[in-house]
Amino acid sequence: MGKARGSHNSSDIVRTGAELMQQQEKDAEFAQELVDRARAEGVSLVGENSLFKGLLKRVLEGALEAEMSEHLGYEKGDPAGRGVANSRNGTTRKRLRTEIGEVDIDVPRDRDGSFEPQIVAKHQRRIAGFDEAVLSLYAKGLTTGEIQQHLAEIYDMDVSRGLISRATDKIKDEVDAWRNRPLDKIYAVLMIDAIVLKIRDGAVSNRPVYIAVGINLEGERDVLGMWVGTGGERAKQWMTWLTELRNRGVQDVLISCCDGLKGLPDSLTAIWPQTDVQLCVVHMVRNSLRYTSRAHWPAITKELRQIYTAPTEDAAKALFAEFEEKWERPYPAMTGLWRKNWVHFAEFLKFPPGVRKIVYTTNMIESLNSRFRQASRRRGHFPSEEAALKVLYLVIRHREPNRPNPTGRTHNWKAAINVLVGFYGDRIDLDGLPLATNE
């Protein structure tokens, strides 16, 4: 009997692998040969009349010719095409904008005008990659004018600001879809923080943009939502935004870490009654220093660190009593801040150190906020809320491998989830967790 369709023996696999390696070696040799030849002849790799532009022109024109041959049913120059109803009818010159500059190509035509190319469609003036290059520069903080100058200097490409704006405007639908995407049923940790941006709304003013980052039961971190604050009642805004997260699928949050934003703790427990609300310790320390003399900062931060790293809440209370006795008279506002917020501050002290690092600070969002500030600093202000959210979304989408990122997997998550199961076991769906996670 012959071999079943789709089956392969080991020799077939070995031969296929060997052929693939040989082809890769040939491709590498050909590429190196082109580069060596370009250098020997003084041809630039990028820029006008460069090697890469020439290669791209040949690849695109070759692909278009192949499409035309498939459309007509015969190859160029094949006698089989003589006398047929439709045939080739020369070419049309088209200028494309690409990541390596403007490239002129010759697009083949047919006599009855029925040819519809797919590689470079009719009326298409930019190939895939150009818009992504513009968006990447936009996410890094360059204005439309700076992107225009960059493309002119590096790629000898004359692009209008209007074209750049249209390229960035295409992201709007993607932003809307991202802001309304379904979310996980349960999040182990929800962190909320704010960044202040200058946004025009009639007049330019400082507007808070609130960021929510979640860690799901698999330890994966993701930005769940972004909202631009208004001058209205803060508690109502929080109820609206948190209800939005619930409507997108979030049924439970184990721990929420925030910086004491007005109305937020109460809103969190109103939406998810079982959630443990943890105030960000870093923000608590920073707020404490606002009420004190700089000369006392080293001593105060050292003593506060002893409190929030105490092994138990009882130990932390004893240390705070000493701290309070020492600093109450000169700085009653600082000690009063800690008394007022002790319940939400001490929430994380019930966990072992490994889990505390995950839940006691919103530094994860702050690393993202630093990238937001970099992208917004050069702009001065945003013309609208939509423009601000578009840039922040692009910052999230364009990950930088050498910088901390809120998206990705949480370090040492296996140990953390085991501790959380011990505290919240009846609320964690173990059947929904993967058998193993890569860290």
TrEMBL record:
GO terms for biological process: DNA transposition. InterPro entries: Transposase_mutator (IPR001207). Pfam families: Transposase_mut. The keyword DNA-binding applies. Coiled coil: none annotated. Keywords: DNA recombination, DNA-binding, Transposable element, Transposition. Transmembrane segments: none annotated. GO terms for molecular function: DNA binding; transposase activity. Required for the transposition of the insertion element. Belongs to the transposase mutator family. This is Mutator family transposase. The lineage of its organism: Bacteria, Bacillati, Actinomycetota, Actinomycetes, Kitasatosporales.
